[in-house]
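W.,

You were right to be curious about this one. When I first looked at the sequence I had no strong expectations either way, so I just let the prediction run and decided to look at it fresh. Below is the sequence, 305 residues in total, followed by the output.
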Amino acid sequence: MKGRDFLTLQECSQEEIGKILETARRLKGSSKGVGKSLAGKNVAMIFQKPSTRTRVSFEVAVQHLGGHAIYLDWSQLQLGRGETVADTARVLDRYVDGIVARVFAQEDLGELAQYAKAPVINALSDLHHPCQVVCDLYTIWERTGSLAGLKLAYVGDGNNVCNSLLIGCSKVGMDISVACPEEYRPYEGAVNWALENARESGSKVEITDDPHKAVERAHIIYTDVFVSMGAEAERQKRLQTFLPKYQVTSELFKHAAEDALFMHCLPAHRGEEVTAEVMDGPRSIVWDQAENKLHTAKALLSLIL
């Protein structure tokens, strides 16, 4: 993976995803864990959207690896005054060894990657959130000891996290069932990739509008906010569409496997996509999931840079 862009997760093989997870486990298990594999390296971190976990985990990861992270607010760069993404990429390429970018449009990431020789890591876009999903896969693997043969049920908005879960689960041989309203289905390109991956890995991919069907015998129930960043103007329409049918509740858990676990990429809106009882209950592993963003960020940076 050295020197490669990390934009969708589809560019990674099953073996490469396994290597990311193994590296994360090794780095998590050592004290600060890491050696100094980024010593002397600088990483630009471009953020067009707000962030808590992604920003902090990457900044701390770069520091633990001995490098230097440079936080760049999109609005305070010349990008905010009309400089093109291509020109920004050409300039940053002269200064830094890698670029982590959290943007609205996946096309901007593609343009960054096209015009910068330094590798670009997608820290979230409108279509994909691959860093989140390698963290999720690591958390499941850490908790259960396996991935292939498990079933993950995603309930809610077919957003960027859902798209990347479709890709990631199908790559590693996990079954995935997505329950969402017809008008909020996941990105067709991600679904097609997932179906292609599933033919190779032997997993199953299902899209339905029935949450009970999706969670049947599921080992993991996963949800995300119903109103993502950039969709605030649709808040009332979305809540009317999703509630109460797509809320993750204790009642919904009764249809899943007996030992099913709950995951959420955070931030969570208790009382909307999930009840407080589930979010804060004994089946929730969201805090382990959040912590593991640091360890998988270290793994990605060390393997790519």
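Here's what jumped out at me. The longest strand covers residues 42-47. And, maybe more interesting for your project: DSSP finds twelve helices and nine strands in the chain.

Coffee later to discuss?

I.
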